[in-house]
Amino acid sequence: MTTDATGVAAAQPQVRADAGAVLADIAGMLRELLEEYGLDEAEIGRETTFHDDLELESIDLVSLSGSLRERYGDRVNFAEFVADLELDEIIALTVGQLVDFVVESLRSTEAG
Amino acid sequence: MKIRTGDISTHVQYLPATRREGAQGEPPVVVFVHGLLTDSLASYYFTLGPAFAAQGIDVIMYDLRGHGRSDRPETGYQVEYFVDDLVALLDALGEKRRVHVVGNSFGGTVAAGAAAWYPDRIATLTLIEAEPPVQRWTEHMQQGLALAKEQLVHDAVIEWIKENRGAQTARLSRVAARILNSTTMGDEVWSGRVIDDDLSAITCPVLAIFGEESGLVEQVPLFESALERCRTVVLPEQGHSVLVEKTKETRDLLLEWIREHDLAAQGADGHELAEALR
């Protein structure tokens, strides 16, 4: 049904739980998304907002959840993350907020 | 993930139920159907979806044909195409349970079509600010879509939307214009199969939620007199955007509704089992 998380994790052992590496990961995923719209020049940093700066639709954020799953498997639960956010918070979401969430998730699963 | 449904591929997000202690049997399953043109499964992904999974319900969200990340064929947009996609999706997922289908706006029209034409697949029907596919609905839809197609192509209109309704709505309106101009959706959605005005085709329990200030609330007397098992809820001082503006109220109403009918269904199964064992 869903991507085989363990298989993917095994194929990509280089997942690192530091903010710099995760930011690079997520920026890569976003560039792939943006390429589909013919935009490949976007600068992506921690302060970048998904909606206003990158002009992504909310459905693009859902697609990003798929990329996160491919990269991190079950260790990062994007649905759980957004469940705690109000709609206006999702609209104002920054790349940095998502990076922090991913780092936190990776660290807590490492510890466990 | 993408799943083949008939002649198109459909973007699906499936959130499995969080297993809860003491829960018995299979969890209930809900299918969320979004609205027309400016909408996608994201409307549920960022409102009800994750909360329902956390409450022990399997959640299926998908993009309607022509929308979000599902395929956008040039033609094939009569309401029965949308209904057949929904059933094809359940088949492709191997879903044997009767589903609690929830539709917002046009998604409710699709959900009601599914309840009418595939009654064996549906446990309950929830309409959020929606109208079943009756003759009157086709007229409302035809007028609305003609207006949208005519207006949304103008930059000045989009600019007005941006000033008055915000950049996000303006952006979605541009997407809507693109869909209307690259497909026959605007001429087809309302031109397909309908059910009788007396709603006799809908036999499952129905929960209908309306905003007091929306035109659709006029259906309440009809629903209450025509549908045998129906609960209507009218939210005060609320327009059409119930799902987004009254997310919490909608969530609570719907969770209670599903729980209630899931228990009733389990009770009925138990009864049948007891009968069979005698």
Q: What does this entry look like structurally?
A:
The complex is a heterodimer of chains A (112) and B (278). Chain A has a single domain, classed as Non-ribosomal Peptide Synthetase Peptidyl Carrier Protein, Chain A, CATH 1.10.1200. Chain A is mainly alpha-helical and 112 residues long. In chain A, helix 2 packs across helix 6. Residues 1-11 of chain A have low confidence and may be disordered. Chain A is built from six helices and no strands. Chain B is α/β, with parallel strands linked by helices and 278 residues long. Chain B is 45% helix and 17% strand. An eight-stranded mixed β-sheet of chain B has the order 1-2-4-3-5-6-7-8, sandwiched between helices. In chain B, strand 7 (206-211), helix 9 (220-226) and strand 8 (230-235) form a beta-alpha-beta unit. Chain B starts with a strand and ends with a helix. In chain B, 45% of the residues are buried. Chain A binds chain B through residues 1-3, 51-52, 55, 57-59, 61-63, 65-66, 79-80, 82-83, 85, 87, 90-91, and chain B through 1, 13-15, 40-43, 45-47, 49-51, 53-54, 63, 68-69, 93, 167-168, 171-172, 175, 244, 247.
TL;DR of this structure?
The complex is a heterodimer of chains A (about 110) and B (about 280). By secondary structure, chain A is mostly helical.
Write the layout of secondary structure elements.
The complex is a heterodimer of chains A (112) and B (278).
Chain A: H1 5-11, H2 19-36, H3 58-72, H4 78-83, H5 87-91, H6 95-111
Chain B: E1 2-5, E2 8-15, E3 29-33, H1 42-45, H2 49-54, E4 58-62, H3 79-92, E5 99-104, H4 106-117, E6 122-128, H5 135-151, H6 155-165, H7 167-182, H8 185-188, E7 206-211, H9 220-226, E8 230-235, H10 242-245, H11 247-277
Parallel strand pairs in B: 3-4, 3-5, 5-6, 6-7, 7-8
Antiparallel strand pairs in B: 1-2, 2-4
